[in-house]
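PROTEIN–LIGAND DATA SHEET

This sheet pairs a single protein chain with one bound small molecule, flavin mononucleotide, given as SMILES. Inputs appear in the order they were entered. The predicted three-dimensional arrangement of chain and ligand is reported afterwards as a token string under its own label.
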Amino acid sequence: MDNFQRLQIVGLTNSCRTNSYNHMVLNHIKSKYEDRIDLQLFDISKIPFYEDRAEVSPFFVEISELAQLIGQSHGLVVASPEYNHSVPARLKNTIDWMSRMPNKPLLKLPVMLISASLGQLGGVRVQYELRRIFEATDSRVMIKPEVFIGKAHEKFSNAGVCTDNETIGMIDNQLQSFYEWMKNHSLNLNCLEENIAHQ
Ligand SMILES: Cc1cc2nc3c(=O)[nH]c(=O)nc-3n(C[C@H](O)[C@H](O)[C@H](O)COP(=O)(O)O)c2cc1C
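PREDICTION REPORTED AS:
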């Protein structure tokens, strides 16, 4: 990652559960890569459920705040649990809201998906569902490398520290790829900086 400047990335956190493993994943990324990534965590539990009556300016402040934050960022990292083989309602609701915002914050946005779960599969199904949803928003989800953190309770300490070297290596590899992938897909940083400057 040495040739790149510091990126502004938004991480969506879904605080349905105290001591969430997915929150631990985001905290791990935030602290380990802070010299390269300014990862801003946004708590989506404050986002109200979508209804058309609310789809008028001024929007709820949390919704406007998130749309602006994502609109000014280089990319999005989604670390999500899997609920009943699918996407937790709060996360889906947040994406639905963002898809309706006038500044179209998700359009062509680079997205990195990662998931942690107690099950062995580590959230494979939630990631595949998310890919389909982000197709609808015309976002740019990085397809590989995929990272599914199964048996998350064995990979993180009670203090929230990732203790599993294989998992640490997989996350390193994924973040490195996220940089290179953004660059190779002509979503290069100069272009992104220009876009951000014009918003
Ligand atoms: C409503 C609900 C549904 C769940 N469904 C799944 C599932 O389909 N697959 C899975 O691997 N884990 C499932 N789990 C267990 C989660 O993997 C576990 O709660 C995990 O800790 C969630 O991530 P978090 O720690 O970031 O909240 C479910 C948990 C809840 C509360």
